[in-house]
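Allow me, if you will, to draw on your knowledge of protein folds for a short while. A protein sequence and the structure tokens that stand for its backbone fold form the material at issue. I would ask you to consider whether the tokens describe a fold that such a sequence might reasonably adopt. Thank you for your consideration; the sequence and its tokens are set out here:
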Amino acid sequence: MKIGILSRNAKLYSTRRLIEAGRERDHEVHVIDPLRCYMKIVSHKPEIHYRGQVLEGFDAIIPRIGASVTFYGTAVLRQFEMMGVYPLNESVAITRSRDKLRAHQLLARRGIGMPVTGFAHSPDDTSDLLDLVGGDKTVIKLLEGTQGVGVVLAETRKAGESVIEAFRGLKAYFLVQEFIEEAKGADLRCFIVGDKVVAAMRRQAREGEFRSNIHRGGQAEKVRITPEERSTATRAARIMGLNVAGVDILRSNHGPVVMEVNSSPGLEGIESVTGRDVAGMIIGFIEKNQRAGRTKTRGQG
């Protein structure tokens, strides 16, 4: 197969591993910077041009689109879909998961456990919004944040009001969530390929920090997850429409709660901690499922 990887940097660990895994299985693999693509949008024979050449003959495309280029990156991915190229994750599924508010509403509609979450626009609603979420401690998240950036723990009600006031002053959209104290700064990253959790790790925030992201100094270890956690993770990915996802779960007193569904999860942490060949599993999934024009959500935005 001829496989394209939409990535801005071929030297990133995740991109390198996917290249290696694809070439080990005798596939032709190309890295494509989505921002260097330009498109001919027509009803018949749509095209993508890249560095002066027409991109053609691709059987599958693996999107590794960073959050900062979601709009243009998913537009390029949609163009590949229009050309009949099989996407590992579809454009509409990626945009669903990147919009934290939309993702939470979709998960809540299907009964997935989540922290109590509030969202409001008017400054007059701040006090009642905090009452809805409950507790003196709250977590306030920018809708656009990734890797723990734009996530604040307000340890008192007054602090929560101040953070909300600051975010509103920046005209930023944000969510307010209950703080899951019993998680003790730890979460589970469940890596989904297809309908299975193929690897899982427990991430523990460093002392004095509540965000467990490895990029923020969190420590990770291999973990055995429960059947309920496994079911929650796979269902969350399925609701988003993602074939490959990193689902972040907290262990709460009332069962597993989903914090986020990541459509472009990194491979370095999960592979080094678990020893699993996740990149190879992703390529194997493409081999089994690739069909020209096979997009489940085609025509739905």
